[in-house]
Amino acid sequence: KKKKKKKKKTKFAKKQATTGKISTTSLHEFSIDCTLPSEDQILDVPSFEQFLKDNIKFKGKAGNIGGVIKISRQDHTLKIVAKAHLAKRSLKYLTKRYLRKQQIRDWVRVVASDKNNYQLRYYNIKTEPANQPKALEDVKMDVK
């Protein structure tokens, strides 16, 4: 009986197989919901769309999206469809970068609302009215 030998892929063959391939069968679809900040006129969705087009990297170059990655806008939501691998995490990173650039990162956060969706929300800041005490220790009770 002869044993069949498995062919091992060399390092070059592995690297060649993982870089630069465009998948024709699977599409990666993501969306970023900017409804809350854009309705309050804090965020400009068209400028955010242009920022993503200029900064998404494909094959190591920013702005090189070509026909592989498509970004479309529907009201206050951005839809990103990629024929090649696109990490959802990179979209969160770019969104945070845009918020920092617009100086609204301190008020708006990026939250994963679904497997393929992000949503921009405000931080929950609770304020207490001025006439109410903060803690029970601050209240002095006169007991006689």
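[next item in queue]
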Amino acid sequence: SSGINAEYGDGKEDKDIRMVHRNEHGKMVHTLEKRSHYSVVEQPGAKPLGMFVPEQCTGKGIAVGLLDYLTSRNIATDDLICLGGDNTNANTGYMGGAIREFELMVGRPLQRGM
């Protein structure tokens, strides 16, 4: 498994086709739902790693989504020294932001990049 030195993420709320089903007339219909998508970028080098959709758009939900995303791709967090994103409370909140929640999950403090 390979590791990365820094990871930066950014969220964007989009409308997704969430569910396709048949209505009372037998016609296939879909439901649009707003969901937040988070891009994951490795630094240095600005290498795009992909994106994930957290179950919840809270600091903890984003942190869990990120850790699950990295783990599912065999990307080790042992060498990770910096976690960054935009300056929203969901990312940077000192008690419940994604960076703090991620630090608690990996068991060590990280540098913060904004």
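[queue empty]
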